[in-house]
Amino acid sequence: MKQFISVNDVNDINALAAKALAYKANPLVDARLGANKRIGLLFLNPSLRTRLSTQIAAKNLGMEAIVFNVDKEGWALEFEEGAIMSGNTVEHIKDAGPILGQYFDILCIRTFPSLKNREDDYSEMFINQFIKYAGVPVVSLESATLHPLQSLTDIVTIKEQLLATPLNKKPKIVLTWAPHIKPLPQCVANSFAQWVNAWSEAEFVITHPQDYELAEQFTKGATITHDQDAALKDADFVYVKNWSTYSDYGKVYENDPGWMLTEEKLKATNNARVMHCLPVRRNVELSDEVLDSPHSLVTKQAGNRVWAAQAVLSELLKA
Ligand code: CP
């Protein structure tokens, strides 16, 4: 593996997920693999799970991890080629990138979308500029359109459940839109759809209100419906996530609390396990009764972030 930006960087999803679960069983088995290597974790946006789980994963592999909150502590970076830097940006990625590449063996970046200009966001300019100028392997800690470490974790978590309680059929996985008060990126939903489609070991259904279609490049292969009740029928896993509109980009068209998942709605499922990447707005996106019930996998899911990150870093170190 040369970089970890999307599922397209992974040769074998099952093998990578198995590696993550092996690290969960034996976290320090490769404790010297990253000795004398340094990993930089650059955050242009906030994080709890991604930041801490990747640091722990790096430490388990013997690497030194340095966190840099670029948004709060760094110079304002310019990403546009040929920019006349007479505005607020202070340092061009063309200058900062090669320096970061000298300081670190692996560079990890979190950079959210603007949600203002779809073309810019979906070109993934920021992370692509880091890749272009750093010259070392780059890992996405969530980019403008995707969140691959989260999605690998999600597959790991589903596989872990299936290993513990096997089904005699392909699992039915439902990605359902949920209400939220703010416009959120499409990254987690795009990425989950991309990974589940690439994994191709599930019946995959996406349900959302009208006008909340995600980009087809990620959803192609899934069944898409506006009927949440129909989607939930016989579901084995329900992944709950809000996203803002893609077509009329970055808008909140809908905030109907009727889309929030409840215990009542879960009665139509096959005793489904409920997933969410966190952070979650309780009783807006997901009800207390579901989050605090045995249906909820959210804490296990967040715990698995360490093992997914460790599997990815290990692959990069061995490349
Ligand atoms: N799920 C996730 O990426 O969490 P953080 O934003 O806290 O890192």
From TrEMBL:
Provide the residue positions that the database annotates as binding N(2)-succinyl-L-ornithine: E142, H180, K241, R281
Q: In which pathway does it act?
A: Amino-acid biosynthesis; L-arginine biosynthesis
- InterPro entries the UniProt entry points to: ArgF'-like, Asp/Orn_carbamoyltranf_P-bd, Asp/Orn_carbamoylTrfase, Asp/Orn_carbamoylTrfase_sf, Asp_carbamoyltransf_Asp/Orn-bd
| Domain Aspartate/ornithine carbamoyltransferase Asp/Orn-binding: start-end pairs | 202-314
Residue stretches making up the Aspartate/ornithine carbamoyltransferase carbamoyl-P binding domain? 2-160
Q: What is its EC number?
A: 2.1.3.11
What UniProt keywords apply to this chain's record, in alphabetical order? Amino-acid biosynthesis, Arginine biosynthesis, Transferase
Question: Binding residues for carbamoyl phosphate, per the UniProt record?
Answer: S47, L48, R49, T50, W75, R110, H147, P148, L149, Q150, C277, L278, R305
Gene Ontology molecular function: N-acetylornithine carbamoyltransferase activity
What Pfam families does this protein's entry cite? OTCace, OTCace_N
Q: Which reaction does it catalyse?
A: N(2)-succinyl-L-ornithine + carbamoyl phosphate = N(2)-succinyl-L-citrulline + phosphate + H(+)
Assigned protein family = Belongs to the aspartate/ornithine carbamoyltransferase superfamily. SOTCase family.
Purpose = Catalyzes the transfer of the carbamoyl group from carbamoyl phosphate to the delta-amino group of N(2)-succinyl-L-ornithine to produce N(2)-succinyl-L-citrulline. Is essential for arginine biosynthesis.
* Summary of subunit composition and partner proteins: Homotrimer.
UniProt-recorded name of the protein: N-succinylornithine carbamoyltransferase
Please name the source species. Sediminibacterium roseum
